[in-house]
Design goal:
383 residues, three-stranded antiparallel β-sheet, Aspartate Aminotransferase, domain 1, alpha/beta, binds pyridoxal-5'-phosphate, Aspartate Aminotransferase, domain 2, seven-stranded mixed β-sheet, globular
Length: 383
């Protein structure tokens, strides 16, 4: 029997739903054709792909032609940001984003600066919150794109993206608004068209779908410079033979995540509260990083034990088969302090002692109780 595990690192990646594995197996075995092929095997694969496209589109309340399949959140962010900026250069040379974006947003902006664009980086408040008025103030006549994430992957702060969209467009109606929705899709309701969002990135492995699979919603009529050329797939915006098993798996994972979403998230929010209360009762000196309540995502908890090392806490928990993260998984191999925690202006000891616990709908109350007790034990031992 494998050991019982307590996987609380779902914002790094999430276990794939068994139904998703089954559908991917089936598509690999039965619909192995190239969706571009003109024979029956091709049209079967094409049908699988277009059904999946419709599923994602319906969940977002947009049209199928506005969904582009990509290799994940990183590619969706790169395509939206570099694609929109480069293609629309004659309209202006100014871009706006925040200091707490994922590196797959920040690095494309840095690349665009090297290409001659000017970028304004918005500073969040001490809870990681971006004021819509501050975003609007950064916008001028030369601004072509604003990009603000929905849920921060490290601290879980939920940005008021529809208010930000409204504020920036009131200032300059020609601005395009991109949202990195990788940590919120399937968890928090967001309808891009209604919210004034022109481009939205999602990634399947964050909602129990396969890794290396994502999508970009791109509002009809917005032109982008492709990153990948050759083949004319995805309306000429993203070349490459489509990953039909991954596409079918992502669509099913999305549908399953949307089922009873509100109840599932209410349950997670109360599990998160319980975990936090158990830990802060035992260790009242613990500090929560990021927003709580309405502006805190139900599945992400970032907590610091100033004076301790996040990495030692992580390895201490691992002894009990409890898996968590220090800061963001994408940076965990580096020793630099997290750019997100730095933007919150935390002191060195608080940053070093930070851990991220991220839940999913698969976590049970018993798992959370076990994890809270294990965390209390590790903190006591390390203090
Ligand atoms: C907020 C955010 N954006 C983008 C990404 C990148 O997504 P992917 O791993 O699918 O490339 C991540 C992954 O951690 C993320 O948390």
């Amino acid at each position: 029997m494998p050991p019982v595990e307590f996987y609380l690192d779902n914002s790094a990646t999430s276990p794939v739903f068994p139904q998703v594995i089954s559908i991917m197996n089936k598509v690999m075995q039965e619909e192995y054709g190239n969706p571009s092929s003109l024979h029956r095997r091709g049209s079967g694969a094409d049908r699988v792909m277009e059904t999946a496209r419709r599923t994602i589109a319906e969940l977002l309340c947009v049209s199928g032609e506005e969904i582009i399949f990509t290799s994940g959140g990183t590619e969706s962010n790169n395509l939206a940001i570099m694609g929109i900026a480069r293609r629309n250069r004659r309209r202006g040379d100014h871009l706006v984003t925040t200091l707490i974006e994922h590196s797959s947003v920040l690095e494309p902006f840095q690349q665009l600066e090297e290409e001659g664009f000017r970028v304004t980086y918005l500073l969040p408040d001490e809870k990681g919150f971006i004021e819509p008025a501050a975003a609007a103030e950064a916008v001028n006549k030369q601004t072509i794109l604003v990009s603000v994430m929905h849920v921060n992957n490290e601290i879980g702060t939920v940005q008021p993206v529809s208010q930000i969209a409204k504020a920036v467009k009131a200032r300059n109606p020609n601005v395009y608004f991109h949202v990195d929705g990788v940590q919120s899709f399937g968890k928090l309701p967001l309808q891009p068209a209604e919210a004034g969002i022109d481009a939205l990135s999602i990634s399947a492995h964050k909602f129990h779908g396969p890794r290396g699979m994502g999508a970009l919603f791109l509002r009809r009529g917005i032109h982008v410079d492709p990153l990948l050329r050759g083949g004319g797939h995805e309306g000429g915006v993203r070349a490459g033979t489509e990953n039909t098993p991954g596409i079918a798996g992502m669509a099913l994972a999305a549908r399953l995540s949307y089922e009873d979403q509100q109840q599932k998230m209410e349950r997670l929010a109360s599990l998160k509260e319980k975990l936090l209360a158990t830990v802060t009762n035992a260790h009242p000196w613990a500090v929560v990083n990021g927003a709580t309540g309405e502006y805190g995502a139900p599945h992400i908890l970032n907590i610091s034990f100033p004076g301790l090392k996040g990495e030692l806490i992580l390895h201490g928990l691992e002894e009990d088969n409890v898996y968590i993260s220090t800061g963001s998984a994408c940076h965990s191999h580096k020793n630099d302090p997290s750019h997100v925690l730095q933007a919150l202006k935390l002191d060195e000891r608080t940053m070093e002692g930070a851990i991220r616990i991220s839940l999913s709908e698969q976590n049970t109350e018993e798992q959370i109780d076990f994890a809270a007790a294990a965390l209390n034990k590790v903190i006591t031992a390390l203090s």
